[in-house]
Amino acid sequence: MAMMDDSENKTVNPRIAAGAATIGDVIGERLSRRGFLGGLGAVSGLALVGCATGREGAMALAEAPAEAGTEPAFRFAEIMRGMDETHHVAEGYRADLLIRWGDPLFADSPAFDPMNQTAAAQRRQFGYNNDFLGLVPLEADAGGAERALLCVNHEYTSTNIMLPGVTAGYPASMTQALCETEMAAHGGTIVEIRKEDGAWKPVVGSPYNRRITADTTPMRMTGPAAGSARLQTTEDPTGTLVSGTVNNCAGGITPWGTFLMAEENFNGNFLGTLPEGHREAENHKRYGVPSGWYQWGRFFDRYDVGKEPNEPNRFGWIVELDPMDPSSMPKKRTALGRVKHEGAENVIAPDGRVVVYTGDDQRFDYVYKFVTKGKFVAGDRAANMDLLDEGTLYVARFDADGTVAWLPLVHGTGPLTEENGFASQADVLIETRRAADVLGATPMDRPEDVEPDPKTGRVYVMLTNNDRRTDAQVDAANPRASNRFGHIIEIIEPEGDFTSETSRWEMLVRCGDPSVAPVGALWNPLTTENGWFSSPDNCAIDPQGRLWVSTDGNENSGAADGLWALETDGARRGTGRHFFRCPVGAELCGPRFNEAGDALFLAVQHPGDTDGASFEAPGTRWPDFQPAMPPRPSVMVITRNGGGPIGG
Ligand code: FEO
Ligand code: CA
Ligand code: CA
Ligand code: CA
Fold first, then answer.
1. Would residue 273 count as lying in a domain?
2. Nearest-CA neighbor of 148 among 220, 203, 70?
3. Given pLDDT bands bounded at 50, 70 and 90, which one contains residue 17?
4. Among 115, 180, 331, 408, which is least packed by CB within 10 angstroms?
């Protein structure tokens, strides 16, 4: 998220953080002990430099003769860094628009009319600010055409560029009807897509198509916290039924084909003041509730914590939805904890248990994994459908010696007792952050997507930035003070056992410009001036096992956000290569490959949302470039001219 996130990271001048160069000793100790090339699959022979040595050192190595085993894993000609009104993709590829905000999903969907938006219309149209993209393959049709269900999260509404006439008078200009339109634009979309004549297209009117919104989609609370008194409200005295989901950021697709929607910055949806001395005061404070980014609480009691103090406890969960059944009721799986969940990428461990990774996207918050109690049963979908209701949630402590200790958040274990305010597992889960605090988890530089690689046992953690970390707060896993540019950590699960309570970690890259020594970036010196990036956010592993990273905040480094291929093995480990560039003001979400690896789905989020942008004067009118049409968050699909794997 960019615009209203209190962990906002965009449109900040590329100022070099004071003190960043003072951490060399910390980094140096870590690098000298384990070595940048010490990760799994690494081969030695080419020394890498921390960019405290500056471009000269890096270039000297970059120009050294290539050694054996340095063939790049990616074979495409990278694009140039830059920023303009439109998107760019590597030569030899095409980027097609698949679906835009406001596009129809149903036979009765009204045409998009940006000047006269209504909640009723938006509920029948593709929502705003597409973030997570998931694919659930369907059988080919009678004609042999490929089909899939595209599962999309609509993270938030960029009110300033989405709605006409509100920017100048905000927030007073927000009416109840406009708030309802926003609620209808949150949530998610399930849409069937089909490949026709080599091009992927949405199937308008498919019986699978569905909109999930913030206010009209009933959901059941399940797992250990369901029914807790702390989840009960006037509307729902049972504490088990919630209308809707908000701020759905990244997510996941389970091995049994369900869609996990991560509720992230839910604190922004609330207004009001808690009654004096209310028991939720400390809890809400820990999550930044209420932060009042949205005006919904002026018109709807549930979003006013003075009237409904428990309502915020009903958000911040992982929602599981069955895209194969459009009438199914989504479930908020409380066993996975309540944080500002960035995503929910997951993997089957060797013993059959399922492991879900998630980052809590806030400065100084934590990385988690959830291990199911039960085991995945191949071929028996029904047996897997409630696997996420029982299991163990762990939070990560990253030690300076390269160990990751996964600390269980289990009531009655260690300090998670009544004495510390945890009377039950429901309390531990509702206050997951505080439970992780008392366990001594490692505060990280805004954990975003956390992606396991099922083939290697490695897990990639995107840490997008943290400009509030002080010199005194740096540690081995977060080695830069005032970290504006983020870094990527690789977790190595021992022998591919994702359920392990002890893992190892390595630094993969420290982001930012390697030519500016005080930035403290760390890239393989083979990285070109276009290949480095800032603020990693989402990532994907393609069918060949290669890592791709998308950014939210590269504009801090003077160029548009986009997608980079990133080498993780061999002498090129830590080398980035630029593949796709967003239009100005946008961040890039998704990314998602199809199973064949010949189609890559990308979510261009909040195009045109530049400093001072409004509906009337956006930073770009991508993708339509019509004077009367605002910029539209859109999903694109990348294919290779003549077919073949994306990235070579
Ligand atoms: Fe919604 Fe953490 O990005
Ligand atoms: Ca983001
Ligand atoms: Ca994100
Ligand atoms: Ca991902």
1. no
2. 203
3. very low
4. 115
Residue 409 belongs to some domain of the structure: yes
For residue 67, what pLDDT is reported? 52
User: Greater confidence, 53 or 421?
Assistant: 421
Residue linked to tokens 């956390």: 450
**pTM confidence score:** 0.91
CA separation (Å) from 582 to 222, 453, 555, 589?
39, 26, 10, 10
Q: What is the pLDDT of residue 389?
A: 98
Q: How far is the CA of 538 from the centre of ligand 2 (A)?
A: 8
Report the separation in Å between the CA atom of 162 and the middle of ligand 4, taken as the mean of its atom positions. 26
pLDDT digits (tens, 9 = 90+) for 146-197: 999 999 999 999 999 999 999 989 999 999 999 999 999 999 999 999 999 8
Close Cβ partners of 476 (under 8 Å, ≥ 6 residues apart): 26, 30, 398, 399, 400
Q: Which residue type occupies 629?
A: M
* DSSP designation for 229: G
Q: Please give the distance, rounded to the nearest whole angstrom, from the Cα atom of residue 234 to the centre of ligand 1.
A: 30
Residue 221 domain boundaries: 2-264+316-640
Q: Report yes or no on 97 lying in a domain.
A: yes
Q: Closest residue (by CA) to atom 3 of ligand 1?
A: 1
Cα dihedral sign for 595, 385, 367, 283?
positive
Ligand with an atom nearest the CA of residue 591: 4
In a domain, 416, yes or no: yes
Total structural domains in the chain? 1
Using CB distances shorter than 6 Å, the residues near ligand 1 are 1, 155, 249, 264, 342, 361, 448
